[in-house]
Amino acid sequence: MVYLPRKKFYITTPIYYVNDVPHIGHAYTTIAADVIARWHRLKGEDVFFLTGTDEHGEKIQQAAEKVGKQPKKFCDEIAKKFKDAWKALDISYDHFIRTTDESHVKAVEKALQILYKNGYIYKGKYQGLYCVGCEKYLTESELVGGKCPDHLKEPEVLSEDSYFFSLSKFHTILLNKIEKGEMAIKPEVRKNEIISFLKSNKLEDISISRSKVKWGIKLPWDENLTSYVWVDAFLNYVTGIGWPNKAFEKYWPVDLHLIGKDILRVHATIWPAELLAIGLKVPKQFFAHGYFTVNGQKMGKSLGNVVDPVELSKKYSVDAVRYFLIREFPFGEDGDFSEKALVNRINGELVADLGNLIYRVLTLAERYKGKIEGEPEIDKNLDIEAIDSYIENLELHNAIESVWKFVRYVNKYINEKQAWKLEGEELGNALYNLLEACKVISILVSSFLPETAEKINKQLGVKGCKLKDCKFGKFTGRIKKGAYLFKKVE
Length: 490
Description:
This protein starts with 7 loop residues before the first strand and ends in a 30-residue tail after the last helix. β2 (16-17), α1 and β3 form a beta-alpha-beta unit. It has a domain at 338-469: Isoleucyl-tRNA Synthetase, Domain 1, CATH 1.10.730.10. The chain has 490 residues and is α/β, with parallel strands linked by helices. The longest helix has 29 residues, at 339-367. Helices cover 45% and strands 16% of the residues. It has helices at residues 24-42, 58-66, 71-88, 102-117, 171-180, 188-200, 229-234, 236-239, 264-267, 270-278, 309-316, 318-328, 339-367, 384-392, 396-417, 424-445, 450-460; strands at residues 8-12, 16-17, 46-54, 95-98, 121-131, 136-138, 156-165, 184-186, 206-207, 209-210, 218-219, 222-227, 256-260, 285-289, 292-294, 297-298, 335-337. The chain has 17 helices and 17 strands. Strands 1, 2, 3, 4, 8, 13 and 14 form a seven-stranded parallel β-sheet that branches. A four-stranded antiparallel β-sheet has the order 6-5-7-9, with helices on one face. Strands 10-12-11 form a three-stranded antiparallel β-sheet.
């Protein structure tokens, strides 16, 4: 195996607004990040996986008022729902940051002072079309029929004294970094979109203060104003690993930032500009994935088709949901969710391929009383470098498909050998290959299906291993066949 593990790997998701509970779209991003984080840990890397919640701004203030609660209490309740959801979905984050955390608030105040001192913040007058839903001013060209295209409402005309961040000063340097790959953006189509945008539009300075929003971080030099939520939120990726203390240097910069394609533009412009203005390095790589539809329709409360990932996992199992979301859609493209497709994957692949394989092998092993030893015969069909390459290139669907090719090959080996008819040394040799293959499969699926991998290890009587252990050696497990890994959905 010729992969080169990094010394550290820092992966981040967007922090999620607490104006609503977690849905399948949130889960998709976070599960993908978890798969990648687990894989890099499997390679022996020092991984830090950050996720969390975005808790300031007018949208949160209004959502809290609507249900008659104080903003902080409202945020506490919704943040807990996100934490509970990630626990239920087996998300192995290293830190869950909340933008209401005292350490984050103090760090944002420090960052604002640095930006102000460095001359990147100035006072001016702003009048514009403000969308409450987006929490930002919109230009005329962004409106469709005079309305915000995302929230289908006319923006309010606002005029106020404001402090501005000199985003325009970073236009050329950001374009250069993206074009040179110093700040990589994937998939390629998204990179081209951002480059095209920067070449056809000049970045404009942005208002970073709000007089009408009380639920936010106050500007250190003017406590009558609060910080624009994007400025506050973007800093979480550096405050979440300890900035402004030197400890943050262990993991900074971000190696991979996963987001939905709808928020790529602001993440690829405002955030790195802020970092450069403070004197920090920009993220190494962004990956913007596609949208979900549900049964061919856009997901929305009004349609009653918002999918709760936790309820889905209770109905079908956590690993079934994780597997489906990674396997069903090419990572980066739009995808359509349907329970019918989920059931097809469960029955056709999890039950028929993986579950059936483990059960067949352990049934054979239980009735065999001889020595389990032999010569490797099927390891040549194992291409771990290809799987690792797919994950490095963020082709998660291809990575799990490569694992599945090996699962199917091992099933084919049983059939071709007619292992159930073998006896003595022939059976011992076949079982050696099959049990070692199952051990390797448990390692390879552990990033995608952590609960299933634990069950396989328990039945094989082996401990969890690292990627370097994906090779045939001496089988040292103690067989204890358990129940089927997955149940067929009728």
